[in-house]
Amino acid sequence: MFLLAGLCLSSLDATAKYLVRDHSLFVIVWARYVGQMLVVTPFAWQRSGPGFWRTRHPALQLVRSAFLLLATVFFFAGLRFLPLAEASSIMYLAPMFIVLLCHPVLRERPTRGSYIATLIGFVGVVVLLRPGSNVLHPAALLVLAAALSNALYQVLTRRLLDENPHTTLFYSGIVGAAGLSLGLPFAFDASLLSWRESAFLAILGLCSGLGHWLITGAYLRAPAALLTPFTYLQLVWATLYGYALFAQLPDRWSALGMVVIVASGLLLALQQRSQLARKR
Length: 280
Prior knowledge:
With 280 residues, this protein is mainly alpha-helical. It is 76% helix and 0% strand.
């Protein structure tokens, strides 16, 4: 389930990159969130009953949902200018940002190893954003902002551990779906009405909904420490999509930076797993 979720989310990113080059960013992000809500709402209702939407932390749920919306907007905007694989790699800075946010937001003190892994991750980004690379573009700042927003989204998720996971899943996309739907009449993109473009919008929404549904199902069946390392396999899909659809392949140095970023993320995941094992 987790590997299939990664394929769905990579397909989502590739479809978004295809659409965002010529169409309204607003409508593309709207389709992504409406698709997510259409899939996860019946799932949450079926698992938790008609009261699935009731939450003990409404403000926190909405702020968390807003950070996910910001992450999507920043990332899709950056995809208009950056290669898919390299942009996806920068998003993997989110776990490193989480380490830096743990103490001020969660009052958790990261280990020395976590700080070392975070430093390694930033070295990878420096290599990726070196002068002369395809990624050294102002749009890289948008993807960095997306990674930070995603980190805040994940940190706030950890503050909702006492909440029903299906309720939290429902609220993940509520701000994006409801908020953007209100503004849709003012940002209508008539060029998306063709059968071809409409089909891509439908694929975008379907991949988003299925991806989040599969991730939730996987986390309900296995511990996060076991699943997290498999997240980085999405980079393989991103590279293949970038080559097949956009004729973009990372050069030697960019590939090295991507490997360093992934290695730092895996190091963080393994440290979390060992910490959990010691607590048991």
